[in-house]
Structures are given as structure tokens and as C-alpha cells.
Design a protein that fits this description.
The complex is a heterodimer of chains A (202) and B (197). Chain A is mainly alpha-helical. Chain A is 72% helix and 5% strand. Chain B is mainly α. Classes of the chains: A mainly alpha (202), B mainly alpha (197).
Chain lengths: 202, 197
């Protein structure tokens, strides 16, 4: 995987534009997923992903194959863009949107929007179907992630959503391996505590 | 291992990375501690749910929009020299090549001072310069007999002219660079200039 990325980058550095397109095809989905999960803002995730690729395109001559992986470089840029985005847009408004789950009728039409965090632990009557439960659980998880402090949110998403190794995460976040491991464990414990009221009701 | 220490090891246990001893202690505790059983069950379910979150996928026009934007950007600013560097020169070769070049240039620069006709050059220069001094002061006769006699000549000359040669004593060691330094002093310290130049 990493070797193929390196080869494609080398080809691009020699002037082959198609090599960069291939790199985008390979990494667009995980990148958008990472940004959407991290910012909790699916609408802007694609814009931020595009900005990430544009920056990589412009800085391609500085990429040194073998020294850093394309993937870690990509997440490193995306992480900084996400930070700026969150700083500029503000968290509160975004999270309010995240906390809203939709309830659908039998025809798949949206009947009503529900604030999951507000109702989830107390009112089990609003969770009649398994499908809705699953959907709500996912929204609750997403909201819980969004509420985690940044220093815990990054490694948690990179590990459990993106499936990166501890070594890769350490490089992206510029942390020692031990720190990365302890932060991920801490983030998982925080997530567990946030989900506890909800999980105990289902 | 107490319950707090158990929590610190939840991830390692979940990912099966505990060493044998820690694993034994962890499982022993987990077997009798109901609170930890409950907490670990919640932990495992939370992480599993997190890992199963549906993936966000790009919209169909993501790539075409990106390509459109990239076409407005400058093509990857890769200079000719940069391309040459990445293509042909590995850092190791560059380092070795640079080292050889530095050696070669240093050698070329130092060659006249260390080898070849250095003695002749110095002797000739010394003779000519001292001769010049001698012509004007009429006090010393320069011979072509070598450095020692020249040095004596210079000493006489110094006494006669009343100038100070701070580097003179160093010429005794006979090092070429020091001799050259002395010669310069002598050449400018003539009775005409009065040692001022």
C-alpha cells in the first residue's frame, strides 16, 4: 500500500498528473470519512477533503518518498485543516445539528427530528424499532465523539474509525507511542462513560 | 491489580496485546469483580459500535470537482533541478559527491603552499625582496646560499631599520607560511617608507 503510494507520488513528481488522480481515488473515501467523523460536519467534509488534496498537489515537490507515508502526510494536513475549520465555525452550532436524529415512517419518510442526547436515557418509548435504535445509537456515538476533547478525539477516530496503527497515529499526531496508546485508552473510556446511559437502556 | 489499574489495561486486553503475566492478573480480577465485568462489557460494546460506524462516502462528483479546481492551480511546482535530484541523485551519492568536490577544490587551493616548488618560490621571493631592501639601505648583502643566511640578513636589516618584527622569531621553525609572513613585513619596511607601510 505505502510502496504503491510512494511510486505514484514519484510518478507525479516526474510530471504524470494521472498518478495524482489515482492517489485521490485511493484515499478520497477514508479521508472524507475521517473529516466527517472528526468535525461532525458531513456537509463541509468534502470541501475540506478537496482542500487537503489541493495542498498536497501544490506541495508535491516537498514529498520525500520513503521518509513519510503518503497516508500519514494526508491525515496530518487534514487534521490541521479540521482544527482551523472547527475554530472558525464554532463547535456549538455544529453539535446541535449532530444531536438530531430523524425518525422515519414505514414509507421511509422523515416524520420527526429527535434530539437524542435529550431523550435517549429516559424515554425508551421513543425507540420502538431496532432499526431506529441502531440509527440513534450511531448518532449518539457520533455526538459523543464530537464532545471529546480534541487531543482524545483525534487518536480515537484514527484508530477505531480509520483503522490506523499506533505507529501511524503517533507520526500524524507527533506523539510518543506510549502517549498515543494511553490517549486512545482514555478516549475509549470517556466514550464508554458517555454512552453508558444510552447503552444500559437498550 | 485494582479496578483503576484494570481500566488502564482495557484497550490492551481488547486488542490482545497484554503480556502473559498481565493477562493472567487481568483475567483473575475480571473473574471475581462484577463491577469490572460490567465496565469492560460496556467498553467492548462501545468500541465495537464505534468501529462499525457507517463510512461516509464521497459524492459522485467529488473527483471531477477536485480536478476542476486542480486545473486552476499551478501544476505541481516541481523544478527541473528538483526532478533531476529525485530521479538521479540519492542523498548518499550527493553527500559522497559533494565531499569529493570539496576535497578536490581544497587540494587545488593548497597545492602551491605545500608541495612542488614551494622552497624555491620562497627562496626566490626572499632573495628578491631582501635584495630590494639591501639596495636601498646599503647595509646588507644577500646571498643565494639559503634560508639561514637570508634570515641573518633580515636580522641585520631589522636592526638597521629600527622596525619591529613581531613574527620574526617564528621563522626559526622554518615553516613556509611563517617565512612568507616575515617576507611581507620586510618588503614594506624600507628606509624610504620608514616602516610606516
Amino acid at each position: 500500500m505505502a510502496e504503491l503510494d510512494d511510486k505514484l507520488m514519484q510518478q507525479f513528481q516526474k510530471g504524470d498528473e494521472n498518478a495524482f488522480t489515482l492517489l485521490v481515488r485511493r484515499h478520497q473515501q477514508p479521508l472524507i470519512n475521517f473529516i466527517a467523523k472528526f468535525t461532525g460536519d458531513r456537509d463541509n467534509a468534502e470541501d475540506l477533503a478537496q482542500e487537503t488534496f489541493i495542498r498536497m498537489y501544490k506541495a508535491a515537490d516537498r514529498y520525500k518518498p520513503g521518509r513519510a507515508q503518503f497516508k500519514t502526510w494526508m491525515y496530518f494536513i487534514a487534521k490541521n485543516l479540521c482544527k482551523n475549520h472547527i475554530r472558525n465555525t464554532g463547535r456549538r452550532e455544529k453539535f446541535r445539528v449532530d444531536n438530531v436524529a430523524s425518525k422515519y415512517n414505514d414509507n421511509g419518510e422523515n416524520e420527526e427530528d429527535i434530539d437524542i442526547i435529550a431523550i435517549a436515557p429516559a424515554d425508551t418509548a421513543l425507540q420502538p424499532e431496532v432499526a431506529i435504535e441502531r440509527k440513534e445509537l450511531r448518532h449518539t456515538i457520533q455526538s459523543a465523539i464530537a464532545e471529546l476533547p480534541e487531543q482524545y478525539r483525534y487518536p480515537l477516530i484514527l484508530r477505531d474509525v480509520q483503522g490506523l496503527s499506533y505507529e501511524e497515529i503517533s507520526k500524524i499526531l507527533e506523539l510518543r507511542s506510549g502517549t498515543t496508546k494511553s490517549r486512545i485508552n482514555r478516549a475509549r473510556l470517556m466514550l464508554k462513560n458517555k454512552l453508558k446511559p444510552y447503552m444500559e437502556t437498550i | 491489580m485494582n479496578c483503576l489499574q484494570m481500566e488502564e489495561n482495557f484497550s490492551s486486553y481488547f486488542e490482545d496485546t497484554l503480556d502473559f503475566n498481565s493477562l493472567q492478573i487481568f483475567e483473575e480480577h475480571l473473574e471475581y469483580c462484577e463491577a469490572c465485568q460490567k465496565e469492560y462489557k460496556l467498553f467492548r460494546e462501545s468500541v465495537s459500535e464505534l468501529q462499525q460506524l457507517p463510512q461516509d462516502v464521497p459524492s459522485p462528483d467529488f473527483l471531477s470537482t477536485l480536478q476542476q479546481q486542480l486545473s486552476q492551480e499551478q501544476p505541481a511546482a516541481i523544478s527541473f533541478w528538483r526532478r533531476l535530484y529525485t530521479q538521479f541523485v540519492t542523498p548518499k551519492w550527493a553527500l559522497s559527491g559533494g565531499f569529493v568536490m570539496v576535497l578536490a577544490i581544497t587540494g587545488m587551493f593548497l597545492y602551491p603552499f605545500n608541495f612542488g616548488n614551494v622552497n624555491n618560490t620562497i627562496t626566490d621571493t626572499l632573495s628578491k625582496t631582501t635584495q630590494s631592501v639591501d639596495d636601498k639601505s646599503n647595509s646588507v648583502i644577500v646571498e643565494e646560499s639559503g634560508t639561514q643566511s637570508n634570515r641573518q640578513t633580515l636580522r641585520n636589516n631589522q636592526t638597521h631599520l629600527g622596525t619591529t618584527f613581531s613574527g620574526f622569531s617564528h621563522t626559526v621553525s622554518g615553516k613556509p607560511m611563517q617565512r612568507r609572513y616575515v617576507l611581507k613585513q620586510v618588503s614594506y619596511s624600507t628606509p624610504v617608507t620608514g616602516g610606516g607601510l
